[in-house]
Amino acid sequence: xxxxxxxxxxxxxxxxxxxxxxxxxxxxxxxxxxxxxxxxxxxxxxxxxxxxxxxxxxxxxxxxxxxxxxxxxxxxxxxxxxxxxxxxxxxxxxxxxxxxxxxxxxxxxxxxxxxxxxxxxxxxxxxxxxxxxxxxxxxxxxxxxxxxxxxxxxxxxxxxxxxxxxxxxxxxxxxxxxxxxxxxxxxxxxxxxxxxxxxxxxxxxxxxxxxxxxxxxxxxxxxxxxxxxxxxxxxxxxxxxxxxxxxxxxxxxxxxxxxxxxxxxxxxxxxxxxxxxxxxxxxxxxxxxxxxxxxxxxxxxxxxxxxxxxxxxxxxxxxxxxxxxxxxxxxxxxxxxxxxxxxxxxxxxxxxxxxxxxxxxxxxxxxxxxxxxxxxxxxxxxxxxxxxxxxxxxxxxxxxxxxxxxxxxxxxxxxxxxxxxxxxxxxxxxxxxxxxxxxxxxxxxxxxxxxxxxxxxxxxxxxxxxxxxxxxxxxxxxxxxxxxxxxxxxxxxxxxxxxxxxxxxxxxxxxxxxxxxxxxxxxxxxxxxxxxxxxxxxxxxxxxxxxxxxxxxxxxxxxxxxxxxxxxxxxxxxxxxxxxxxxxxxxxxxxxxxxxxxxxxxxxxxxxxxxxxxxxxxxxxxxx
Length: 624
Fold this sequence. Notes:
The chain has 22 helices and 15 strands. By secondary structure, the protein is an alpha/beta fold.
């Protein structure tokens, strides 16, 4: 090849060999046609012809991918089966996202592909979904004929014009890094994809309100672009980063987006972080501050943050290592953005960001090992950490309960209090799962009754709607989750006993999920003065955003009763074997004394029994 490559031909070698080299001749013919149509040459890289004898094949391919501006994937079943082809396509999807473009991949349909034709196959293959919606050149009929035929020539001329238009349109096709205009374009593309995916998959949890919020963030970025003095907009811009980071984590938790959308979103966030790493050039001259002696409330707060984080790292971290998870550590980046925002408060704005960086790096070192501990325990540091928010909540269907995603992790299950809570043992929850934010309410259960004709439980005259459903048996709860699974198409179920205690403790090791003490302001039990159930959410949530894990109503779980934990599963699964016909209940209720609201407390009853103080909570497994 005599010209620097502009486009990269991605194809399955077996397809070219099967057709007698027709894909190679297609590449040559397209380059010739481009020169005729535009009057300019174009280089189209192909591994067969453009890797010299003796060159290191993987290195040369990587170099070509970095140099070329466009990708021409020749799509076939072999293409989607080839790891090399998939990697090349993924690279260019990232390249597009970085530039805020959606036109740098020009697909050619060469052979019928089930991955493209079958909607179910597309849902299972992110790459197929990423290219399916693009305008393509259809060569499925032309591939069997001669490349000089009239239809083939006309198609090649059309492709050459489209190649030329792509090269002359929009943002520069370089990899120097995204500027603000490209960031804004990338965010616009992201929201468009999110809206399309929400409509296609009917994801009620991706609400108009959430997307409107993201649109508002676009306005913040646009204002930053056009502002003559950006110093006053720094807080808003960093706030936008924090909101986007939270939205990205939510998208990962609830599968709003495929992995290539997430790659583009991550590129957007990285670009914003690079922007804020540059000094905002305030009008006033930078002034160094005495951080150790400044009595401004913001400086005092930051010092407390630093000192408490150091103490936690030295004293508490060894106790928390078993609870660390990738999801919680990923929230560190949001935490760092929060520290930057604190450093950008009016009192500190005169300090240049270059002077703040050592402070931020110091906090990063100390906080990196403590983030999960801060989230899961009621520590004195919590009031100072503005980015620690309740977990995102989603709902799969208007009739479904609100759900909270929980991370994988480990915990010590049981206690030394009673024989049926012994022995305390380590349990590993290997997969993420979601738990009902509240116990199932009468309003939610009544919709099931209306749909199925099931028995309507008695509310004892206390009221229905947001009160937890009572007088339901374990068998009733199983019927409800089976109906909910049919309605939503999601695998709803009861929690296992281990999952229930893991969710209740929320990373704590105390008697209750707050401390070792209990008061009527914390939960509904026999000293709370109500003598009946209370509406769900009437008391504070635990550290993972779950309500009423202690008291109000006992909650059925999946497991059979056993008199101890000897032989219990250690992987979080339900213990369904054994001779007992009784099923387990957890959490205590409005009729019990505080001892029966402990995180480790257990009870049991026959699966057909309905009681005034027993309800249930739902769960479902999330994809990794």
